Amino acid sequence: DIHGQYYDLLRLFEIGGFPPSTSYLFLGDYVDRGKLSLETICLLLAYKIKYPDRFFLLRGNHECSKINRIYGFYDECKRRFNVRLWKIFTDCFNCLPVAALIEEKILCMHGGLSPELQNLSQINSIERPTDVPDFGLLCDLLWSDPNPDIQGWGASDRGVSCSFGAEVVAEFLKKNDLDLVCRAHQ
């Protein structure tokens, strides 16, 4: 999660290499909390436009109008420019992909698994543009969390989506011939 920490993002590029010399897959939460969300998201989108085959952006739960309206991005847009700019970014966020598959073996998303998710074709079936619903597959992909203290599925401490135990992950990996689920959100 970058959360508007523009200088941390620049430091990441200094250490890992600037695009296109290094490929990147970011897992969401580009805005809110930090003071430079606009610089952060504009740089990321510029790199995506310039290097579309080497730079990838997934949607996080903060790339949602209901969330970034509260946690700072709306206020930053309104204070520095206008509400219209925030609405344009909202339209952009509603089009972002929610998952990526690396070499057919590593499934990446911002949040985690969903009790509704049986196979990867379900993710491809999520229509875009779309806002994030309060429940269901899309919500879970952006909001769910692993919990080492439970078996199966459980309630989330966040009050949104759900949590899942290690055996849920193991079963999902085996069923879908995957090696790893890679996530952010913490």
TrEMBL record:
- Respond yes or no to whether keyword Lipid biosynthesis is given for this record: no
What's one Pfam family here?
Answer: Metallophos
Q: What class of enzyme is it?
A: hydrolase
Reported EC number(s) for this entry are: 3.1.3.16
In its UniProt record, a GO molecular function of this protein is: protein serine/threonine phosphatase activity
Q: Give the catalysed reaction(s), semicolon-separated.
A: O-phospho-L-threonyl-[protein] + H2O = L-threonyl-[protein] + phosphate; O-phospho-L-seryl-[protein] + H2O = L-seryl-[protein] + phosphate
Domain Serine/threonine specific protein phosphatases, residue spans = 58-63
InterPro entries xrefs: Calcineurin-like_PHP, Metallo-depent_PP-like, PP1_catalytic_subunit, Ser/Thr-sp_prot-phosphatase
Look up the record and name the cofactor or cofactors this protein needs.
Mn(2+)
The protein's superkingdom reads: Eukaryota
Q: Cite the entry's keywords alphabetically.
A: Hydrolase, Manganese, Metal-binding, Protein phosphatase
List cellular component terms (GO): cytoplasm; nucleus
Into which family does the record put it? Belongs to the PPP phosphatase family. PP-1 subfamily.
Q: This chain belongs to which protein, by name?
A: Serine/threonine-protein phosphatase
What is the species of this protein? Nymphaea colorata
